[in-house]
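lol forgot to send this yesterday, sorry. struct tokens for the thing we talked abt
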């Protein structure tokens, strides 16, 4: 198994190209199942999760061709995927695949909408909480799907096809919003989703569906109005930049000090996190197609934050913020309100010398003068990158084990950081 070795203490200086967003690329790829025509997606990041979903989609009969990068092309424009689901040959998404990545459960909506039948394993993904799927099923039932759970599988049928409905989600769920939005695109009549997730990745999927011929009102708000169509067309769409990757490198720069430009990042998708970074003492400037983060030597101020659905502070940046706060001048408080078990990074950060107390959903972080390098273990995607941030500031050498978690969501992480001066390398298992 690969490991990452980091020697801390270097400032970050330079430009980091931000990749396409994993959390948009995945549902956009799934949207290809809604049409027999070709969906072309540009700026798709090269990540383990994307490659796994490509295998799952191929299993259903989706044809995928990948363009190479054009010579002279921009370094942060990722791959171009051409996806064509002329025939769906298999309506089953098996346990072996869905258990490895939760987002693959979102094939359920498109399969029922297009084929009237689906058998999809209950999902897996990062072990950060119980992560039920009741909201997904509530929404799809409202659209007319008959659903049974049998031996770990969701069995869904819509013998008369799906129809529009008004769905009020009792809780904001990104995945349930995607699943219902995708299904509603092929349902008869209008679907209204109330209390929909407002994450930019949901907006990106809605924008793509509009290009495929669906009329959608309220994009970017918590009420989506979707006019379903019998048949959708192909489209060309560019995946939006990854706000979590951008936020991660912004926090890494605030932690190490230095001056980094995040090329391609969109500040308005990240305003709560950028405000937090400003409050702790880094300078953040935003332009149309970049964010610049500068910190010159001054100490970090403590902060109190709780995670919230968009536009609040993202749970996907909670672990990274905690790594940053381990060296603040005072005590910070972070409350995790989205996932009950998303603190697995705490004990690993403690191995580097962090002083963190956990009480239920709240972590209290007392800033320490210095962290010391040590061997640590990556436990989930965002937790593992928080260890990278901590290691970049620690004295001496840190080795991070189980970095396959990082490869699920961060494209060329070591390369991007080492180009900005970090002492970081991948130790490949022989
Ligand atoms: C997505 C993101 C993930 C992010 C999360 C919250 C992708 C691929 N993943 O995950 O990176 O951390 O949004 O921003 O985009 N819930 C229910 N019932 C359901 C569904 C969810 O109770 O049917 C709960 C979950 O347990 C959790 C909360 O709702 O407590 C939010 O989960 P949700 O927004 O659905 O997260 P995901 O879509 O899994």
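and heres what i got for the seq, position by position
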């Amino acid at each position: 198994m690969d490991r990452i070795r980091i020697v801390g203490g270097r400032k970050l200086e330079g430009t980091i190209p931000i990749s396409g967003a994993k959390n948009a690329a995945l549902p956009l790829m799934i949207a290809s199942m809604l049409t027999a025509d070709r969906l072309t997606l540009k700026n798709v990041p090269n990540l383990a999760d994307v490659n796994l979903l490509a295998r799952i989609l191929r299993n259903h009969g989706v044809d995928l061709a990948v363009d190479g990068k054009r010579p002279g092309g921009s370094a942060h424009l990722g791959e171009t995927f051409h996806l064509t689901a002329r025939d769906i040959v298999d309506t089953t998404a098996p346990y072996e695949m869905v258990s490895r990545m939760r987002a693959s459960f979102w094939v359920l909506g498109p399969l029922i909408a297009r084929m009237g039948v689906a058998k999809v394993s209950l999902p897996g993904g990062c072990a950060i909480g119980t992560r039920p799927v009741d909201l997904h099923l509530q929404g799809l039932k409202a659209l007319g799907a008959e659903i049974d759970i049998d031996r770990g599988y969701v069995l869904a049928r819509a013998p008369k096809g799906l129809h529009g409905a008004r769905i009020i989600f009792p809780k904001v769920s990104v995945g349930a919003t995607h699943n219902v939005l995708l299904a509603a695109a092929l349902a008869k009549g209008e679907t209204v989703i109330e209390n929909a997730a407002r994450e930019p990745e949901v907006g990106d999927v809605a924008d793509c569906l509009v290009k495929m011929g669906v009329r959608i009102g309220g994009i970017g708000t918590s009420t989506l109005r979707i006019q379903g169509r019998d048949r959708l067309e192909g489209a060309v769409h560019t995946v939006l930049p990854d706000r979590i990757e951008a936020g991660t490198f912004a926090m890494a720069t605030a932690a190490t000090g230095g001056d980094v430009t995040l090329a391609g990042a969109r500040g308005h998708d990240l305003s709560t996190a950028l405000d937090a970074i400003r409050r702790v003492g880094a300078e953040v400037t935003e332009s149309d197609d970049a964010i610049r983060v500068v910190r010159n030597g001054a100490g970090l101020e403590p902060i109190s934050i709780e995670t919230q659905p968009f536009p609040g502070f993202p749970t996907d940046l909670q672990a990274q913020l905690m790594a940053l706060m381990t060296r603040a001048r005072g005590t910070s408080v972070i409350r995790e309100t989205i996932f009950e078990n998303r603190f697995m990074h705490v004990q690993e950060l403690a191995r580097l010398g962090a002083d963190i107390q956990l009480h239920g959903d709240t972590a209290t972080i007392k800033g320490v003068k210095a962290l010391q390098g040590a061997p640590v273990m990556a436990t989930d995607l965002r937790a593992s990158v928080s260890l990278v941030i901590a290691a970049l500031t620690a004295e001496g050498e840190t080795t991070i084990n189980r970095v396959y978690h990082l490869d699920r969501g961060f494209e060329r992480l070591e390369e991007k950081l080492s180009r900005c001066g970090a002492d970081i390398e991948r130790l490949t298992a022989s």
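The chain has a mean pLDDT of 94. anyway ping me if u want another try
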